[in-house]
Design brief:
The complex is a heterodimer.
Chain A: H1 3-32, H2 52-60, H3 62-93, H4 102-107, H5 115-125, H6 132-140, H7 153-181, H8 185-194, H9 198-226, H10 230-235, H11 247-257, H12 261-287
Helix pairs in contact in A: 2-12, 3-7, 3-9, 3-11, 5-7, 7-9, 8-9, 9-12, 11-12
Chain B: E1 4-13, E2 16-26, E3 31-35, H1 42-50, E4 57-62, E5 65-66, E6 77-80, H2 92-102, H3 107-120, H4 136-148, E7 154-158, H5 166-183, E8 186-191, H6 194-200, E9 203-208, E10 211-216, H7 218-223, H8 228-233, E11 240-247, E12 250-253, E13 258-261, E14 267-274, E15 279-283, E16 289-298, E17 303-309, E18 312-318, E19 329-334, E20 340-343, E21 349-350
Parallel strand pairs in B: 3-8, 3-9, 6-7, 7-8
Antiparallel strand pairs in B: 1-2, 1-4, 4-5, 9-10, 11-12, 11-14, 12-13, 14-20, 15-19, 16-17, 16-19, 17-18, 20-21
Helix pairs in contact in B: 2-3, 2-4, 3-4
Classes of the chains: A mainly alpha, B alpha+beta.
């Protein structure tokens, strides 16, 4: 057999698996999003509705817009906060930075924890009866002792953001350390001798050369923030009320709890659009020829 | 305009001593070359002058200030890096303009100065390009232009020609020399290439293992080496160094061959240094001793003969028309006027 035929046969199993687990469900969910799709009624998916699921979400459903708002806010804040903190840490931990060695190993620890576990631990830590944070704040700033963090809509959102930022900093820091290490040291030294202050060296020399890595970090974190589900599910379950209900949480609830598969598929497809855009951008930065 | 002064400078990393308690004065407008093999501390010495490395102890003076506590940006020096250190995301124009920009030069002044610097190194037509689009020699010139765009107190050059191919290196060397005569700015230049050191320097400091072994004009370094290391390091091919002793006014090799007349009394353990061009080759029987040709190399401009007697080998430089073959017998005579004797123990020069 000629090599150029053999190569297609060799990749065929992988292609079949990707089709079965990613492409087909995607197409099937698109089909379902145009159906009534009630799990609780006979003859699933009960015929086609056209665009009605979509217009319902956009026109008639405040819960949808609430979850969009939560997701956008959540994504913006976590992406910016995580990247900034990770960049600061990376500057300290990079070769030639001020901290190094054992600290780097310690840093990876939060990333080794599953998001669901992070959700559970944060729920315990903010528990008003026996939570670590509550005890801590109670001692340091006594007025905060009385606050029940997870039952206040704004504070619950803050706790969700905190947990997410905490969990993601390590990985992004490591990626940025790698990015910093790849910047030629002599460009930085040249700038120092040329007369640049440390801030200007960072702004004029380090940051512009870090842009490709930074772009990857931002896009990657945006993708992960957008699809956040497990951590929220374990930490607040979208509550109190719907204060921390992200889109993926909303999709899960509409589909799995209320059995509205058709409707939840249509909302999922609303989310697919920014995801595809981000994935496309990501692929462009990662696979671009430099 | 400034002199550079190092007073008892030491640089240590843990147990490793990079530079060991060295002092050095570079005069105003002088072109001083730090020469030595890799790891000898020459680059470290320069980086301490630039402020990129902190001395463990000692004082660094630029002009009439101690600069130990000054950041690189406050030392008013310009540096050319071995890998050029160009800013890859900036155009050539912005690269050259950067030292002016960060030092708050008025915008109206920047353009003419960048253009003048670019003209001096013949880069005018490349100003809008990025470093990636330039050849090695052109990048080298950008680094140079970025250094000369200001008038710093001191130029620091860290092996600036070492990444260029051999031919370009010779051209750039001449350009560098011309430029430095024009600019008249104190320069410290680091290299491991003795030809660069000999041709460019007003004075050369030869370094080994963190110590300056000799400081002098290229002439002194070549013709009057003060120790075995400098004698062996300077010159190509390297100086012949022969172990032996002095007895009854003659140098006797350890193999027992009476080689050449040497004044100054008997000495037990010495090393005789003689340069290849001071070893004369004659027809067999017409020299002081007869030797075998071990290897014959014709470089075009001259011929190199590796000669063997007993276990001793010696390299001689002969006329370019000389033709010999392996195992030929030739006469050898060492020119007694250009000999160097070194103490085998201390490796210091014995002057007689």
């Amino acid at each position: 057999m000629r090599d150029n035929k053999l190569k297609y046969i060799l990749v065929l199993p992988a292609i079949i698996v990707v089709f079965a687990t990613a492409v087909w469900p995607l197409i099937e969910s698109l089909r379902l999003s145009f159906t009534v799709g009630r799990l609780t009624k006979p003859n699933f998916p009960q015929g086609y509705l056209g665009w009605e699921n979509y217009t319902w979400a956009f026109m008639e459903e405040p819960a949808f817009w609430n979850s969009v708002e939560v997701t956008v806010l959540y994504t913006l804040i976590t992406v910016i906060l995580t990247t900034l903190i990770a960049l600061g840490l990376a500057m300290l931990l990079a070769p030639g930075g001020r901290l190094r060695g054992g600290v780097q190993t310690l840093l990876i620890l939060p990333f080794a924890m599953s998001p669901a576990l992070i959700g559970v631990s944060f729920r315990f830590m903010f528990n008003p009866e026996f939570g670590l944070f509550d005890a801590f704040f109670g001692v340091v700033i006594p007025p905060l002792a009385e606050i029940s963090w997870l039952s206040d809509p704004t504070l619950a959102f803050v706790v969700c953001v905190m947990a997410d930022v905490w969990g993601w900093i390590p990985f992004l820091t490591l990626v940025l350390i790698g990015g910093l290490a790849s910047i030629p040291q002599d460009t930085i030294e040249a700038a120092q001798v040329d007369g640049a202050s440390s801030w200007r060296v960072f702004k004029d020399i380090t940051l512009p050369q870090l842009v490709p890595v930074l772009a990857v970090v931002l896009i990657l974190k945006a993708i992960f923030s957008l699809k956040t589900f497990d951590q929220i599910y374990m930490l607040t379950n979208g509550g109190p009320g719907t204060a921390t209900q992200t889109l993926s949480h909303y999709i899960y609830f509409s589909g799995m709890k209320y059995g509205q598969i058709g409707y939840s598929a249509s909302v999922a497809w609303v989310m697919v659009i920014p995801m595809i855009l981000l994935t496309f951008l990501y692929a462009r930065y990662v696979f671009q020829k430099r | 305009m400034a002199q550079v002064l190092l007073k008892n400078i030491t640089k240590r990393w843990g147990d490793f001593v990079g530079v060991d308690n060295q002092s050095l004065a570079v005069a105003d407008k002088e072109f001083l070359v730090l020469l030595g093999p890799s790891g000898c501390g020459k680059t470290t010495t320069m980086r301490m002058i630039a402020g990129l490395e902190e001395p463990t102890s000692g004082e660094i003076w630029i002009g009439d200030h101690v600069v130990n506590d000054d950041l690189p940006k406050d030392r008013d020096v310009a540096m050319v890096f071995q890998n050029y250190g160009l800013y890859p995301h900036m155009t050539i124009y912005d690269n050259i303009a950067y030292p002016l920009k960060v030092r708050g030069t008025p915008k109206a002044d920047i353009k003419p100065r960048v253009e003048k610097a670019a003209e001096q190194v013949e880069l005018t037509e490349f100003l809008h390009r990025k470093p990636k689009a330039l050849s090695g020699g052109q990048r080298q010139r950008v680094a140079l232009a970025r250094a000369i765009v200001r008038t710093p107190k001191v130029f620091l050059m860290d092996e600036p020609l070492s990444n260029l191919d051999a031919k370009l290196r010779v051209t750039m060397r001449a350009e560098l020399k011309h430029l430095s005569r024009q600019l008249q700015i104190t320069t410290v230049y680091v290299t491991h290439d003795q030809i660069e050191a000999m041709t460019l320097a007003d004075r050369v400091a030869v370094m080994e293992k963190g110590v300056i072994r000799q400081l002098g004009t290229p002439d002194e370094i070549y013709n009057d080496p003060s120790n075995l290391f400098v004698a062996g390091f300077i010159g190509s091919p390297a100086m012949n160094l022969i172990n032996g002793s002095v007895k009854d006014g003659y140098f006797i090799t350890t193999g027992g061959t009476r080689l050449v007349k040497v004044d100054g009394g008997d000495r037990a353990k010495v090393i005789l240094g003689v340069r290849a061009e001071d070893v004369d080759i004659h027809e067999s029987g017409q020299g002081d001793i007869d030797v075998l040709v071990y290897a014959y190399e014709n470089t075009g401009e001259s011929v190199m003969l590796t000669l063997q007697f007993g276990k001793q080998r010696i390299i001689a430089k002969g006329d370019r028309h000389l033709r010999k073959d392996m195992d030929d017998v030739v006469g050898l005579r060492v020119n007694p006027d250009h000999l160097y004797l070194f103490d085998s123990e201390t490796e210091e020069r014995i002057r007689y």
